[in-house]
Design a protein that fits this description.
HTH_TetR
């Protein structure tokens, strides 16, 4: 075992590093905090403690996401179970609203979890707003994941062009950015109105019809790509 491992192989070191990362990410975002800063904030005796436990920044971020994922996955699956148990009844608007709620309410619970929840929400938004969005840590392609299930239930309700144009991902990113912004607002303790309004907005975005202009531009782009081949 390395020297770092000998010095930092205490049962709570990994948790303390994640706690420190969440607090720093909540304050400054995940892109501007170094592994060494996280180690110092965690009280680690070796400056490379975070590297020992997580290998690199991506490993730490993956561990942070995985720390919160079971709670969110369980809550979203429960809401989707409830949706399916209702026999998919109700108007299209009601079903879109229910599915928007299933997307939003599980991570929105993090708003009531202090710096831990805020650190998670800001990290998610940072990953999804990179020039090349990072989705791998969220299990979007996992067969048993809640997001693939949510996408499948939602697809029949969407304009076909909206499906092709990745409307669902755009709404996911919009929601996660809004949650991260809310997490940055100091002193706000009652999030019920914010969450309800966010569900309304997401349902409206999901249900929006694709305009003739967008359909025309999409068709033109398809023709250009076909000509390239």
């Amino acid at each position: 075992m390395s020297t770092a491992g000998q010095q930092e192989n205490r049962p709570d070191t990994r948790s303390r590093l994640l706690d420190a990362a969440e607090a720093l990410f909540a304050e400054r975002g995940s892109e501007s905090v170094s592994l060494r800063e996280i180690g110092r904030a965690a009280g680690a005796r070796n400056v490379i403690a975070a590297q020992y436990w997580f290998t690199d920044r991506d490993g730490l971020i993956r561990a942070l996401i995985e720390r919160h994922a079971p709670e969110i996955e369980s809550a979203r699956h429960a809401l989707l179970d409830e949706y399916e148990a209702g026999g998919l009844a109700g108007s299209e608007h009601d079903r879109l609203h229910a599915l928007a709620g299933a997307l939003i309410r599980p991570p929105a619970a993090k708003l009531d979890q202090g710096v831990s929840g805020a650190g998670y929400l800001r990290t998610v938004a940072d990953l999804l707003t990179r020039p090349e969005p990072v989705t791998e840590p969220f299990g979007y392609s996992d067969e048993d994941g809640s997001i693939p299930r949510w996408r499948a239930l939602l697809e029949p309700l969407l304009d076909p062009d909206a499906v092709v144009l990745h409307r669902r991902f755009h709404v996911i990113r919009f929601v996660d950015v809004e949650l991260a912004q809310r997490a940055r607002a100091p002193g706000r303790r009652d999030h019920r109105l914010f969450i309800s309004q966010l569900v309304d907005a997401a349902a409206g975005l999901l249900g929006a019809r694709t305009s003739p202009e967008t359909r025309r531009l999409r068709a033109e782009r398809g023709q250009v790509r076909g000509a390239d081949h």
